[in-house]
Amino acid sequence: MTGRPVVFGEVLFDRFPDGSAVLGGAPFNVAWNLQALGADPLLISRAGDDGLGQNILDAMTAWGMDTSGMQRDLDHATGTVEVTLQDGEPRFVIAADRAWDHIAAEDLPDLSGGGILYHGSLALRTAPPRRALERLRRDTGAPVLLDVNLRPPWWDGESLGRLLLDACWAKLNRDELDQLEPGGPGPFLRRHGLESIIVTRGGDGAVVHHRDGSREDAGRPAPAAVVDTVGAGDAFTSVVILGLTRGRAWPDILERAQAFASA
Length: 263
Fold this sequence. Notes:
Elements: E1 4-8, E2 12-15, E3 21-24, H1 26-36, E4 42-48, H2 51-62, E5 70-73, E6 79-86, E7 89-94, E8 114-120, H3 127-140, E9 144-147, H4 157-165, E10 169-173, H5 174-180, H6 185-192, E11 196-200, E12 206-210, E13 215-217, H7 232-245, H8 250-262
Parallel strand pairs: 1-4, 1-8, 2-6, 4-5, 8-9, 9-10, 10-11
Antiparallel strand pairs: 2-3, 6-7, 11-12, 12-13
């Protein structure tokens, strides 16, 4: 498979009670990692014409990333997530009607030479990004890796089903698979016409289920001292995209992705 990865979706800041803010969003994290891995991704997102939006562009430029897919919005602020701790567990409130909710089809960059198209489901909670993604799929004809993000209240089964029908591969965690298809991976693959699904299982590793009934199991990762699991799933996805782009076999992809995510 040839071409640079195209990454579509939200870029935002996680804001904490102490006033600190951390740049992220799953698509941004994936693109950031792909840049570090030498894949030259094209990130398509939208930021406000504000200080946080400028911080995003500055960080991307310093990291050597292509900013031609970053749209600026004069009317909507850059995305944020308010993070709080309740009984020691993080809780997230994703701000509505932010710049990334208005990714515009008419402002998309030149898409020639694109490879795998990666996007999540969260970025499609409003109509403008859905129209932009439809144009992306039409113009690139690229195979799609869908990252399933079940973030209440920003998803519904009907809309997610349509996204899955347009995808070649889907990545989701064990709990999300159980929620969407209690019958397991086989019925899920058949119902949505997917080639493969990548199921992450936390400390139990990851497994890939294929349409023909075969599977690859990465097994449990090597024990490690847990510092912070935030972003591990995005790190895993980055290496999956890199491996698919470079035509690597699934056992090799899984081994490398799991090692990178663990680190």
